[in-house]
Design brief:
The protein is mostly beta strands. It is built from one helix and ten strands. The chain is about 5% helix and about 45% strand.
């Protein structure tokens, strides 16, 4: 079965950086687009970024464009999200999901999440 395990979340000061990882198993990772979404306290699920199967195409929400970088290592079945210049509004539970944005936002497979807290 599909298993997605996120890691790397932490408490960080504004302006800091974090790198999230998502270890995937139970499916052919390299055949699927992969997506990061997040959920802030009291808010709905928000799309963050999506990467194509080979990694050549990436897409970002306007709120993170220029600060976050999505990447993948198909040999390691791992998805990454490099987050720089973090802001307090980036505080959320971050999930990786199998598939594109519409699939993940409509309830597609995703992990349990990793908590990112940006605070001074």
């Amino acid at each position: 079965q599909v298993q997605l395990v996120e890691s790397g979340g932490d408490l960080v000061q504004p302006g800091g950086s974090l790198r999230l990882s998502c270890a995937a198993s139970g499916f052919t990772f390299s055949n699927y687009y992969m997506t990061w979404v997040r959920q802030a306290p009291g808010k709905g699920l928000e799309w963050v970024s999506t990467i194509s199967t080979g990694g050549s195409s990436t897409m970002y929400a306007n709120s993170v464009k220029g600060r976050f970088t999505i990447s993948r290592d198909n040999a390691k079945n791992t998805l990454y999200l490099q987050m720089n210049s973090l802001k307090t509004e980036d505080t959320a539970l971050y999930y990786c999901g199998k598939g594109g944005s519409s699939t993940v936002l409509s309830g597609g497979p995703r992990g349990q999440g990793t908590q990112v807290t940006v605070s001074s």
